[in-house]
C-alpha cells in the first residue's frame, strides 16, 4: 500500500475533520484505518515489502516520464507549426529566435526561486487547489483552447501527477465530475455533447494518455495490431473509386493499355456499379468484418482491465445523461459513452499505433488503411453511424447491426464500478497524520497557474473571505514567465493554514471512533505479530501460529529492532490476557486466527503486486520508447534550425532552393563543402526499419546499395546503385524542408520507386550521419 496524502480541506474551512469522520464512523472498518496507520512505520524487508517498494518506484517513474512526454509532445506540436512557416520562408528573424528558445534545455544553475515567504504562500495555494478540485474544475471551463494544454500539464501531471496513488487519482476524478456536470448543464443540444474540440474534450483525451490508459492499450491492442500489420500486401480497400483506380492501374501495367469500356476519372457511382469492382470488394467486406469482430471481442473481454478512472468517467456520462435527458434511449446514452471510450481512447491508438508505441515502425500502406477502416467500424458501432461523406461504409452495416446490442451491453457494463467517495474520505482522514506531501513543479507552471487564477478570480472566488481569494490576494500579481533556460523545477511542500495536522494517529482514532485503549492495544499487538512473522520468513508457513514462541524468538535474536518488538509484544500479550481479551489456554486462538487471515491476505497481495509490476515494466518501456521518439523529432528540428542559421544571411538569389534567407546583415560565407558519399546496403537499411517496402527481387538485394551525399547544408542526394555499374539506377534530390513537411502532415513514406522509406527514420539517419560533419 502506498500513500502520499495531505490534510483535507473543505469549503467550510475549520472543523471539517470532525464532520468528515463523524459522518463516516459506520462506513469503515476501524481495523482497516488502524492497519493503514500502522503500515506507515513498518520496518519489514520481506519479499512483499521489496515488491511493493519496487512497484512504488516504478509507478513514480511512470508518472514522471508521462509528464516529460506530455511536455515534449506539446513542444513538437508547436514546432510543427513554426517549422512550417520556416519552410515557406515566412518567418521573421525574431520569430526564429523564439523557436530556437523552445529547443533550449533547462540550465539547473540559471534562474531564481521565489523567496521563502512566497513559497509558503504558493504551498497554501496549491494545497487548496489540490484538495478542493472544484476550483480547478471551474478554471478548466474558463480558459480558452490556447491556454488549456499548459493548464492540463499542471493539473494532470503535477497537481495530481501521482497517477497510481488513490487520493490524487480520486481528487482528479472529482474534478472531472464537476467539469462534466457543468458541460451537461450548459449543453444546448444532445448531439453536440462531448464531441466538439473544447478544453473539456482535450482534458478527457489527455487523461486517457496517462500511465494506466497506456498500460491498457498496450496489453489489449498491441498483439492484435501487430498480427494484422505483418500482412503488408493484404489490400482490403473497399472504396469503389480507389478499388477501380487500382484495378485499371494493374490492367494497364499487365497489358500495356486499357480496354475501351474502362476509362479514367469516372464518378464514384460508375466505379461502384462496375461488376469487377463489386467482385473484388465482396470478399474484402467479409474479411474486414472478421478482423473488426476479432478487435471487438478482444476489447469486450478486456472489460476488467479497463482503468478504473476511465470506467468511472463512463459512469458519470451515463448518470449525467439520464438526469439531464430523462427521455434519452439507452442507445442514445451508449452513443455518448462510446464517443468517449472509442473516439477519445481506443481509436486514436488503432489508427496511429506508432504514436502509442504499440508497434515498432509505421505500418505499411495496406495495413494502415485496414486499421483506419477498423476504427471507422468501431466508431460507427459505438456511435450513430453517418454515411453522408463515405457512402461506401454502408456496405459494412451488417457488422453494426449484428453487434449493436452487444456493444451497448459492454458500454453499460463499463459503467458498473463503485464510487470512491468513502475511500477518498478515508485517505483524506489519514492525510492528517502525514507531513511529507509535496509536488515537483516548474516555475512557469507555478506562475502560469497563478496568472490564470487572477484572470478569473472574480468568477472563481467572488467573496473576499473565501480561502482561494485570500491566497491570491496575499500573493499579489503573478510573475512573468521565465525563459525556458531558467524554468527550474522546485519541490513545493503542500499544507493548509486552515487545518491542524494530527500529531498522534492512535489518539485521533480513539477520539473520533469511540475506540477504547483496549481496542488500540489489541490492534497494535496483532499488527506487531504480522510484522515479526514477515521479518522472520522461516516461521511464516508454520501452522498453527505459535504467538508466544514468535515473541520469544524475536526477543532473543541478534537484530536489535526485532528484540525491541519481541519484548514489547510479549508485554502487550500479557496485558491483553490480564484484561481477559485473549487466553493463553487456547493458545490465543482469537488473535491467532486474525493474524493467519492477515498473512493470507498479504500473500495474495504479493502475487498481485508482482503481476502489476510485470505489466507496468512493459508500460514504462513503452513510455521511454515514446520519449526517445519525441526527442529524435526535436533533434531533427535542431539540425534544421542550425542549417537555417548557417544560410540565413546569404543572398537569397544564391541560396540553395528550399533554404531560408531572411533579413540581417549579409556575411561572406565560405564555399559549401560536399559531405559524403556515405554508403549503406539494402540489408542495413532494412534492418534499421528505414526501408518499409521493397520491390527489389530477393536475389538482387545483396547487390543493391545506397549512397547519400550532402552537397549543401539541408540538401541531400540519395542514389540507388547496383554493384558493378558506375551510374546510379536512380537519384533523388531531397531537402530537409520536404522531409519535415511530410512528417508534419503525417505522410510517413518516401517513395524511391524501387523502395519506400520511413520518413522519420530517414530524418534520424541524416541527422546522425551529417550533424557533426
Automatic annotation (TrEMBL):
Looking up SMART domains in the UniProt record yields: RasGAP
Q: Does the keyword Mitochondrion apply?
A: no
Coiled-coil intervals, chain numbering: 41-68
Q: Name one GO biological process term.
A: negative regulation of Ras protein signal transduction
Q: Which GO terms describe its cellular component?
A: cell cortex
> Known Gene3D superfamilies for this protein?
GTPase Activation - p120gap, domain 1
Organism, as annotated:
Tulasnella calospora MUT 4182
Listed name of the protein: Ras-GAP domain-containing protein
The Ras-GAP domain covers 167-383
Superkingdom, taxonomy of origin: Eukaryota
Q: Which PANTHER family match?
A: GTPASE-ACTIVATING PROTEIN, RAS GTPASE-ACTIVATING PROTEIN WITH IQ MOTIF
Keywords tagged on the record: Coiled coil
Which InterPro entries is this protein grouped with? RasGAP_C, RasGAP_CS, RasGAP_dom, Rho_GTPase_activation_prot
CDD domains found in the cross-reference section: RasGAP_GAPA (cd05132)
Which Pfam families did the record assign?
Answer: RasGAP, RasGAP_C
GO MF, one term, reads: GTPase activator activity
**Segment Disordered: which positions?**
1-22
Entry annotated with the keyword Acyltransferase: no
Amino acid at each position: 500500500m502506498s500513500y502520499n496524502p495531505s490534510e483535507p480541506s473543505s469549503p467550510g474551512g475549520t472543523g471539517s475533520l470532525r464532520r468528515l469522520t463523524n459522518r463516516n464512523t459506520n462506513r469503515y472498518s476501524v481495523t482497516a484505518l488502524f492497519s493503514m496507520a500502522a503500515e506507515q512505520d513498518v520496518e519489514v524487508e520481506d519479499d512483499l515489502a521489496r515488491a511493493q517498494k519496487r512497484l512504488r518506484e516504478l509507478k513514480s517513474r511512470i508518472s514522471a516520464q508521462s509528464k516529460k512526454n506530455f511536455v515534449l509532445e506539446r513542444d513538437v506540436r508547436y514546432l510543427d507549426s513554426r517549422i512550417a512557416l520556416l519552410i515557406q520562408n515566412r518567418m521573421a528573424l525574431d520569430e526564429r529566435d523564439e523557436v530556437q528558445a523552445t529547443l533550449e534545455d533547462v540550465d539547473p544553475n540559471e534562474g531564481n526561486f521565489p523567496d521563502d515567504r512566497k513559497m509558503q504562500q504558493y504551498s497554501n495555494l496549491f494545497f487548496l487547489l489540490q484538495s478542493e478540485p472544484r476550483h480547478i474544475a471551474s478554471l478548466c471551463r474558463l480558459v480558452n483552447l490556447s491556454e488549456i494544454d499548459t493548464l492540463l500539464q499542471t493539473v494532470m501531471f503535477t497537481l495530481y501527477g501521482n497517477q497510481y496513488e488513490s487520493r490524487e487519482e480520486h481528487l482528479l476524478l472529482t474534478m472531472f465530475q464537476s467539469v462534466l456536470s457543468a458541460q451537461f448543464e450548459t449543453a444546448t443540444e444532445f448531439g453536440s455533447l462531448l464531441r466538439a474540440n473544447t478544453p473539456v474534450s482535450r482534458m478527457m483525451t489527455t487523461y486517457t494518455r496517462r500511465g494506466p490508459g497506456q498500460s491498457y492499450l498496450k496489453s489489449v491492442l498491441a498483439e492484435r495490431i501487430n498480427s494484422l500489420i505483418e500482412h503488408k500486401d493484404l489490400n482490403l480497400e473497399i472504396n469503389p473509386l480507389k478499388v477501380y483506380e487500382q484495378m485499371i492501374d494493374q490492367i494497364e501495367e499487365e497489358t500495356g493499355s486499357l480496354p475501351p469500356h474502362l476509362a479514367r476519372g469516372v464518378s464514384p457511382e460508375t466505379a461502384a456499379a462496375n461488376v469487377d469492382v463489386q467482385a473484388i470488394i465482396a470478399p474484402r467486406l467479409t474479411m474486414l468484418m472478421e478482423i473488426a469482430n476479432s478487435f471487438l471481442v478482444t476489447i469486450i473481454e478486456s472489460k476488467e482491465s479497463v482503468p478504473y478512472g476511465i470506467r468511472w468517467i463512463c459512469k458519470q456520462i451515463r448518470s449525467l445523461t439520464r438526469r439531464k435527458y430523462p427521455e434519452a434511449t439507452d442507445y442514445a446514452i451508449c452513443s455518448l459513452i462510446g464517443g468517449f471510450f472509442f473516439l477519445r481512447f481506443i481509436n486514436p491508438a488503432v489508427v496511429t499505433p506508432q504514436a502509442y508505441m504499440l508497434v515498432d515502425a509505421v505500418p505499411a500502406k495496406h495495413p494502415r488503411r485496414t486499421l483506419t477502416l477498423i476504427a471507422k467500424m468501431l466508431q460507427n458501432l459505438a456511435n450513430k453511424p453517418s454515411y453522408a461523406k463515405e457512402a461506401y461504409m454502408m456496405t459494412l452495416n451488417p457488422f453494426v447491426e449484428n453487434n449493436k446490442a452487444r456493444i451497448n451491453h459492454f458500454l453499460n457494463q463499463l459503467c458498473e464500478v463503485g464510487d470512491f467517495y468513502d475511500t477518498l474520505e478515508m485517505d483524506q482522514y489519514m492525510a492528517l497524520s502525514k507531513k511529507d506531501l509535496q509536488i515537483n513543479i516548474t516555475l512557469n507552471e507555478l506562475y502560469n497557474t497563478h496568472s490564470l487564477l487572477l484572470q478569473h478570480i472574480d468568477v472563481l472566488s467572488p467573496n473576499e473571505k473565501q480561502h482561494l481569494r485570500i491566497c491570491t490576494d496575499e500573493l499579489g500579481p503573478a510573475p512573468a514567465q521565465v525563459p525556458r533556460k531558467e524554468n527550474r523545477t522546485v519541490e513545493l511542500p503542500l499544507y493548509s493554514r486552515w487545518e491542524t495536522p494530527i500529531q498522534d494517529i492512535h489518539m485521533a482514532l480513539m477520539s473520533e471512533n469511540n475506540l477504547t485503549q483496549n481496542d488500540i492495544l489489541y490492534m497494535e499487538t496483532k499488527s506487531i505479530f504480522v510484522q515479526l512473522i514477515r521479518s522472520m520468513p522461516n516461521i511464516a508457513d508454520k501452522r498453527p501460529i505459535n504467538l508466544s514462541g514468535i515473541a520469544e524468538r524475536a526477543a532473543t535474536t541478534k537484530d536489535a529492532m526485532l528484540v525491541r518488538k519481541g519484548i514489547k509484544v510479549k508485554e502487550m500479550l500479557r496485558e491483553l490476557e490480564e484484561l481477559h481479551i485473549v487466553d493463553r489456554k487456547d493458545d490465543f486462538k482469537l488473535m491467532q486466527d486474525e493474524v493467519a487471515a492477515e498473512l493470507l491476505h498479504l500473500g495474495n497481495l504479493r502475487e498481485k503486486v508482482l503481476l502489476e509490476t510485470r505489466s507496468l515494466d512493459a508500460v514504462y518501456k513503452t513510455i521511454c520508447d515514446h520519449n526517445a521518439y519525441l526527442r529524435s523529432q526535436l533533434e531533427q528540428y535542431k539540425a534544421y534550425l542550425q542549417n537555417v542559421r548557417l544560410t540565413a544571411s546569404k543572398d537569397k538569389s544564391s541560396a540553395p532552393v528550399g533554404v531560408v534567407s531572411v533579413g540581417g546583415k549579409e556575411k561572406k560565407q565560405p564555399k559549401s563543402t560536399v559531405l559524403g558519399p556515405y554508403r549503406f546496403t539494402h540489408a542495413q537499411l532494412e534492418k534499421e526499419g528505414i526501408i518499409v517496402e521493397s520491390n527489389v527481387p530477393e536475389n538482387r538485394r545483396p547487390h543493391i546499395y545506397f549512397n547519400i551525399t550532402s552537397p549543401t547544408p539541408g540538401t541531400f542526394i540519395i542514389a540507388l546503385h547496383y554493384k558493378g555499374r558506375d551510374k546510379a539506377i536512380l537519384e533523388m534530390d531531397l531537402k530537409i524542408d520536404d522531409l519535415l513537411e511530410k512528417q508534419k502532415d503525417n505522410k510517413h513514406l518516401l517513395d524511391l520507386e524501387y523502395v519506400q522509406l520511413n520518413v522519420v527514420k530517414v530524418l534520424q539517419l541524416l541527422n546522425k550521419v551529417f550533424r557533426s560533419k
